[in-house]
Amino acid sequence: MAEKDYYDVLGVERGASADEIKKAYHSLAVKYHPDKNPGDQEAEDRFKEVSEAYAVLSDPEKRGAYDRFGRDGVQGGYSGGAAGGMGFDPMEIFREFMRGQGGGFGGLGDIFGTFMGGGFEGRRGAEGVERHGEDLRLALSLSLEEINRGITKRVRIRRRVRCSACSGSGVRPGGRKVRCSQCNGTGEVRVVRRSMWGQVIQSMVCSRCQGEGTIIEDPCPRCEGEGREETREDVELKIPPGVADGTRLAKRGAGNFGRRGGPPGDLVVEIHEKPHEVFERRGPDLIMVLPISFTQAALGAKINIPTLEGTVEIKVPGGIQSGKVLRLRGRGIASGSGRGDLYVRVQVWTPQRLSAEQRALLEELGKSPAMRAPKPGKGFFEKFKDAFRGG
Prior knowledge:
By secondary structure, this protein is α+β, with helices and mostly antiparallel strands. It has helices spanning 6-10, 18-32, 41-57, 60-69, 90-101, 107-115, 144-149, 294-299, 356-366, 378-387; strands at 82-83, 86-87, 136-142, 151-162, 177-179, 188-195, 198-205, 214-216, 228-239, 248-251, 267-273, 280-282, 285-293, 301-307, 310-316, 325-328, 334-335, 338-339, 342-349.
């Protein structure tokens, strides 16, 4: 089955503005979010699909590559796959989107209210509050060789975990919590405001207990009542083959723990691709320049060239022109959907220093009619174009 065009997935024109793309994604993400469609596999698949489309089209560089090369230009980006706890996470894309909007689309409160039938405020309260920990971010630089084969990396991160003295409660052993007198344990207060339509009752987080509904009378001295402490941990990251520069992967539960027993956030890893001495990457494909001598170009040669997995021998045909591209199938970047190709652009190298003997030999050789370059014209132009068409 042919893959859908990302613009069609979001229902926008190819020339759509950034705001139009945001609005389209927001509408579809809310409609198909798994929390709103529990157990609906079709809705979940659509949510992943619109998240992938947004991840590409919202990034000017990825969008430009997609417009020029299609999905091959952004291969290794958001594929919805997973590997060893690391994967392309549509939920992370959604969270990032909502964090970036602030109040532009009603904020996270409105989104949860939409999903839970207005139950966002209802989640607050003495025991009902769920304070998720913060996500952590990590930039991970990888070589093309590491990206090609996939790799497991161990990294040391600084994160906040549950306090060992109070087990995350924030209360001193033997201490206690009391009900907040300001909100009477509900975690929220109601404020009456006047407007042109009359009185409007608005629920707000209690400022005294920060929405928890309780006040700690005897805070834990180790964590000062926060319920968490800082530590350093080694985390194992399994990076799947074929990831692209700028790809974000999420390791669930490896972020900071929440305050006072709240669940942990995620560790978000952004891949940075190191420049390579030999290869330039274009999606799943690789490009390299191969310098050859005039003799090799004229007579042909067998030459060993590097790849990401060792050297291979290629045959350079006699009479090849500078700029001609040779294609080695299956020698590009490996990924879950296959393997790209290696394109070798031949460049005839001209010696800059010649001895008197070498100069004399070349001058004698140059007198041969076969060594004369063709005159400019249609025939020469066609040969010149052929040199850049690739093999």
